[in-house]
Structures are given as C-alpha cells and as structure tokens.
C-alpha cells in the first residue's frame, strides 16, 4: 500500500459499498465526527470481492471464457466507480474541509477492512452494520462484528435508519438527574 | 423509567462501568462527538448485576445471612457511586456544555443497555468493547457485540488503547488520492 502516510493527523476510515447503509454511515460520519474547521483525513475504503475464476482444466460446474472474465472485471471496476461517485455526491451535501483518500481493496471484506485499519492506524473506523439477516448473522456474525472484535481503534457501526429490529423489555431502570 | 424525556435534542447514551475501558469510551465521546457549542444530553448508564439471593429454604450451596445481603447491596451502591464519581472526574477534564443524566439499571448488561436505547432513543450509543477474552468472546459474544446487533442507533465500540489484539495481513490494497 504505497503512498499511504501514517502521521499524527486525525484520520477516519469509512468502509463504503453499494448499499444505502454504507452511504448512511458516511453521512453519519460527516455529520457527527467532522467539524467545519477540521483537518481530518477521510479514507474511503471499498472492498472488491476476489473474482472467482475457473480454468477449463478445473472440475468445476461453471467454466467462464476469457470474454466473460473480462466482462466481470469491467463490472467490478464500474461498481467501484459507481460507489465512489455516490460517496462524492454525499460529500457535496456537507460543507466539510477534509482530505479525502480512496483505498480499493480486494478479498474478504472483513479481512481487508481490518488489514487497512492496521496499516493506516486511523482514529476511528466507521461502517454500516453489513448484517446478513437473522439466521446467518446469529451463526456466522457479520462483517462489522468481525471488525469490531479485531481492530484496535474505536469502531462506529451505523445501521440503516429503516432497520426494523425489535428489542425485548426485560430489565429494570432507575433514572437520575445529572451531577 | 419515569422522568426520562424523549425529545428531538441530540442525545448520547454512554454505558459506563468500573473498567478503565468504559472511562476511555466516555473520554472518546467527549472528545469526538460533543463540540463546545453543543446542546447534547449525555446519559450515563450504569448496570448493576442482579443480586443473587438464596433463602435458607433453598437447596443451595451458599446461604447468605441478612447481614451479608445488606453488605452486598451496600457494596453495589458504593460501586455505582464510585463509577459515577470517576465519570464526573472525566467530565471535569473536558470543557463541554452538556446536560448530564444518570440512569442506573439492574440485570444483564446487554439487555439493560438495549432496553435503555429502545426507551430513550438516543442518536448514538457509546460503550467499551466489554470483551470476555478470546474463548468466551468467540463462543458467546460480548456485551458490545450483542448491543451492536440489536440497537437501531449508531453504536460506537471503544477499546482500551492498551488492547494488544493482533491482525493478520492477507488482503490486497490499492491506494488512490481523493476526488
């Protein structure tokens, strides 16, 4: 990862993808973590899944021709550009003086995000919850859970505001005024 | 939970306990989420574990006398006061104009925190990672993981800066300058 400086300035990594949730996480970051007179460097991290390529010698159900592989790679590049353009549009809605850097990773999202955080040492990581629905989340855990366990810096997990999670009410609370 | 208002003001819940990590989470919140001219209401939430009380009629290994129970309850109250005084000391290090409210809950920490968030509807929940060490965390999950899954608002998970988690480096990254 050449060209990435590790310095003392305030740095935030925001993991973005094609979901509305990740754009909401970016908006939350711009609203809550970056002030108008900030000198923050904001790193937009997008993770492309590794392409699954089968050669004609593999005993595989799906064998793709070179043309299909090229088309898939182009689709991946188009997706990166699309996500970054959406992120740019989110930025335009906020009047923030930040240095924006883009990092494109490839591989398992959770590994790439943790790896980037280890290398860039940001002050904060911001990401969507990236859940997979109740059953898979319960068994496997989500990308955000994995990252929250592994990275050292504070992690902000932002859910899409239309998330309909319900909560039980089985505890007792006592309220008190301030100090 | 009488006396707790649900209004449109910016509200942050910080889960505090006797750990250094939770005080670090409070510091992070004061440094990063609350500006000098903020009108934020900051709710400090402390969760007391439910006392385990055995009567002399139970077939239990441990039977406590009334004196011991009173002493345990006093210890619990002392702990609450101690944590809130530490939080107050953290506040004094920051020049922030915030309304501070205290909520004392009782029960399983994860349930009480989720329940409080559901009732108060804060803009953000801030907490320490509250891990239990590798094995238990891997099997059961931590309080913060549980809360991050269940609450609807953005959740900030802050680890103690001396956490020595190590990360693998098994992904590829490409760095790019800003827009």
Automatic annotation (TrEMBL), chains A, B:
Residues 10-159 form the UspA domain. InterPro entries: Rossmann-like_a/b/a_fold, Universal_stress_UspA, UspA. Gene3D superfamilies: HUPs (3.40.50.620). It holds the Pfam family Usp. This is UspA domain-containing protein. The lineage of its organism: Eukaryota, Viridiplantae, Streptophyta, Embryophyta, Tracheophyta.
């Amino acid at each position: 990862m050449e060209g990435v400086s590790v310095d003392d300035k305030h740095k935030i990594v925001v993991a973005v993808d094609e979901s509305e949730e990740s754009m909401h996480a970016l908006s939350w970051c711009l609203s809550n973590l970056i002030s108008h007179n900030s000198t923050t460097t904001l790193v937009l991290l997008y993770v492309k899944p590794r392409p699954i390529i089968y050669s004609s010698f593999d005993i595989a159900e799906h064998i793709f021709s070179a043309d299909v592989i090229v088309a898939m790679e182009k689709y991946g590049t188009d997706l990166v550009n699309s996500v970054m353009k959406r992120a740019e549009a989110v930025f335009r809605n906020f009047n923030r003086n930040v240095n924006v850097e883009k990092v494109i990773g490839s591989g398992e999202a959770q590994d790439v995000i943790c790896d980037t955080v280890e290398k860039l040492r940001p002050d904060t990581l911001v990401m969507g919850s990236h859940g997979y629905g109740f059953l898979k989340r319960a068994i496997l855990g989500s990308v955000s859970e994995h990252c929250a366990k592994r990275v050292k810096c504070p992690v902000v997990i932002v859910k899409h505001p239309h998330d309909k999670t319900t909560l039980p009410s089985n505890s007792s609370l006592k309220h008190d005024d301030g100090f």
